[in-house]
Amino acid sequence: MLSIGFSPLVPAYALWALGAVVVLLSILALLSRGPVAILRAIALGLVLLALANPALVQEDREKVKDIVAVVMDRSTSQTLGDRPAMTDQVKAELERRFGSLADVEPRFIQADDGNGDDGTRLFTALSNGLADVPPDRLAGVIFVTDGVVHDIPSSVEGLGFKAPLHALITGRPDERDRQIKLLEAPRFGIVGKDQTIRAQIMERGGTGSALVTVRRDGQVLTRQQVPADTPFSLDVRIEHGGTNVVELEVEGLPGELTLANNRAVVPIEGIREKLRVLLVSGEPHAGERTWRNLLKSDANVDLVHFTILRPPEKQDGTPINELSLIAFPTRELFQQKIKEFDLIIFDRYANQSILPSSYFENIVRYVREGGAILVAAGPEFASYGSLAQTRLAPIIPGQPNGTIVEQPYKAHITETGDRHPVTRDLPGSEQSPPAWGEWLRIIGSQVQSGDTLMSGADDLPLLVLRREEKGRVALLLSDHAWLWARGYQEGGPHLDLLRRLAHWLMKEPALEEEALRASAQGRSIRIERQTMAETADPVTLTAPSGQESSVPLTESRPGLFTAQVQSRELGLHTLRSGDLVAFVSIGPANPRELMDVFSNTEALTPIAEATGGSVRRVAMAGDQSITVPRILAVHSGTRLSGGDWIGIRPSDSAIVRGVSVFPMALGFVGLVLLIGSTLAAWLIEGRRRG
């Protein structure tokens, strides 16, 4: 490539100043002397040209290939329907067509989901993929996408290049889909009260109404037909404390894009207004205050405590009007208000004919309908006044054998207790023997049903738990838990044990024997399966797209099986193990990628046309074939697309391999000769005039 270059012998500002002077003198000479002054103007011009020092520059250039960026949209919305197959076919066809263009280098750039809930970021991926490419080497940009893009610049100036932009849209114009959208979803609710959820079914190509199934903790509550595009309300009862998982699922349409947005999950945290506990102490003893202090220290517990200080058989002749003790309100507690209590504790209570048989029957009915009782037994449990001799006997898990063992012993956690959340990992249990103090008494009992979690002297059962229909029963066969509280022989974990025991009875979800839990960190899902069995079956994991996978579990601790899996999809994941169900959300609960799932050509059209490019579909309704336009190099003109072709604009980019410079003047020597000839011409002209 040949060109003219200049290397001025004087600073540029001096050269421009001399040029201005030469022009001014030439004009004055022409006005005063006429055409003869042209010779002087030419001479002065040659002086300026010599000062500019012109030279012929010959560059040895090597033409480089033009870059065409092809951005492949691999976001979540591109996984719907047959879009993945369409995208792969378009990519293969583009690779084949670029192979016939010798001076074009295609650069394929993959765009995944944006961070967090950023959606599809094609222009960001394009900018990152072309960071090492000069803008003048870019001949064109091709997007292979469904058209749902969330980072489109507001103007063509924000692109940073002048090449044409073409978009090849996957998907079809006749797509149909149905989704459920939450309008109002409560986060908290009072246990036993109803909460209202408002939602709406949105559809395209639907039937106008759909069947909605409502589940709570995996159990079907109701099914009802709901009109589309109209808000509707549902009342759901909060059954228990902790997380109540309410699931709304709308039936799918035939051939719809995805079922991932047909379901919405509302986790509602159940809050008890107050956990009401009735503590009935049979007689004052050293451990009575331990229970009272434990329950009073919990701000969520409303404690009602009675101690039987004056049994009916005590007749000492004291006038009634001189007694300061109140009467035990048996009828009010065990008949009228028994269902208001979440837990009833009988602490060393003996049957002293205070409670008639009908009241014990009320207690049994209360338990079987969902209540809970704890029997903290002492020597009275082995006597004729034992609660096991009343009508409570059918629900008490153990029957006394009449023995009372009074000797020092350390409570041990049984093999079953190692797996139960109430006694697993009690502080001190990791050693053998356990690192806690001794107890001094245990009541002999024959366990008939339930799980024995702790044992005492001579391997006698110490703590037994039992489920009775909807309710729960616990039997603690010693009244010496207070020794741990008083620090006897360095004490023991009485707070952990008794608090866990009370909360298990009151159905704390974290203490359930059979439970399935899941949590997410980034795209990693941690699965926990609590079970009393020695093994745990694999968990079925259902991704938002409906794809199912079986996840094997490994035992991390007795009764606790875990697994860690990575998810490639954003959205709500469902985990099932038998009748247990859990939910975990990767990323936002309602990701942008699934809020608008229909492919479209409108979003990218303004920016593409502003660059001279085009937007077109690669497949039409009812047509299974894929059409990819031809790629042509357009060297001139403004039209860069046609009915079956798209254009790229080649550049003149090249790499300079060498440069040769040929001076057109002789430097200062030529300048001296030129000045001398000019002066000679001036002198000759002056003499001739004289």
Automatic annotation (TrEMBL):
Asked if Membrane is a keyword of the record, the answer is: yes
* Keywords carried by this UniProt record: Membrane, Transmembrane, Transmembrane helix
Q: Which residues cross the membrane?
A: 12-31, 38-57, 661-684
Which protein are we looking at?
A: Uncharacterized membrane protein
